[in-house]
Amino acid sequence: MYFPDLSPYQYLEREAAESPALNVGWLDLEHDYPKGEVSAQALERLRQECSAQLVNHMRGWHACEFCRPGFFKRYRQPTIESSSGKPIMLGSAEIRVKGKDGKVYAAPNLIYHYVEKHQYRPPEEFLEALLNG
Length: 133
Known about the structure:
Radius of gyration: 14 Å
Oligomer: single chain
Strand order of the largest sheet: 1-6-5-2
Strand content: 15-25%
Number of strands: 6
Largest sheet: 4 strands, mixed
Low-confidence stretches: none
Shape: globular
Structural class: alpha+beta
Helix content: 25-40%
């Protein structure tokens, strides 16, 4: 599901009405996205958020559209390792990052994979909130 970066969160209507947030990292194949390096510190903080601070858990998984294999090949869902060493599958929940200015950013937990494997560079204000919020 695609939403432009920094647009108002609207994936779950109830959630959008109760706690306004801005979208970050809702990517798909039909839309270009900003690419660039992200610091190791920011990537580690993102890993921590995606392995511990999950919200809006879904019953299924959204596969990465950028590395989905051909029709007859088996797909492996991206995972990360939690601080306890437990693997966590990405693509089934969201994270919230709050900045010092009070802005809240909503991202799919697949954002970690997008940054690490597909060079997605989230907006600077999101990275600032991730590191200093």
